Amino acid sequence: MATPQHQCDYGKMPHIDSATPLNEPTDARVAAQTDTRADDDPGAVRSAAESGEAETSEGRDGMGADKTPRQRWMGALARSDGATLEAAWTDLDGVPDYTFLRPAEIGMVMVRARAGGAGRRFNLGEMTVCRCAVRTGDNYIGHAYVAGRDTRHAHYGALFDALLQDPVWYARLKTDLLEKLAASQARRRQALNRKTAATKVDFFTLARAQGVQGGDSS
């Protein structure tokens, strides 16, 4: 059973004052788009989310079918939780060493939405997020942006993002991690849909006929 190569004291992780937004329009499941190899200067490697270019739409089918494989697995990692990802990481053998490009930190981002789901974008409001960036010994860079204040979630999300860019690790983790996360998240969606369906109300308009049978029904 493997243990993380770098232990983190999450009580002492860097923190961004909530009064100072990260100034990065994004959403809770933003998928960073970066070069898969860290051949350039780390400071020059920036995700699409950091440059404000991330697409916030989920895809026409609501499941992100038009996203790249990396965007889909980053979404699955972001919708998971820190405890699940940490347990999955510690169960791995032969994981590469890694260093932090950006230790997990807490801040705020502006969430953008579309009017009517397909109209013009507007600023919906701010939300708390954690972000992290790592570089593995194999020279892959991983990013994570997760909703909330769980720095551990962002830490392991970034590690798995880096690991999944390696074709060898991807072949292994596709079954051992990604498919399990997808199944778990599908069950949660189904449970939520059932709960929502139980409170569904159908509204209809009843047209009252007037002047029927020779008189005004009022």
Automatic annotation (TrEMBL):
One of its GO terms (biological process) is organic phosphonate metabolic process. InterPro entries: Phosphonate_metab_PhnG. GO terms for molecular function: lyase activity. The keyword Zinc does not apply. Residues 57-68 have a biased composition (Basic and acidic residues). Coiled coil: none annotated. It comes from the Bacteria. Residues 1-68 are annotated as: Disordered. Keywords: Lyase. This is Phosphonate C-P lyase system protein PhnG.
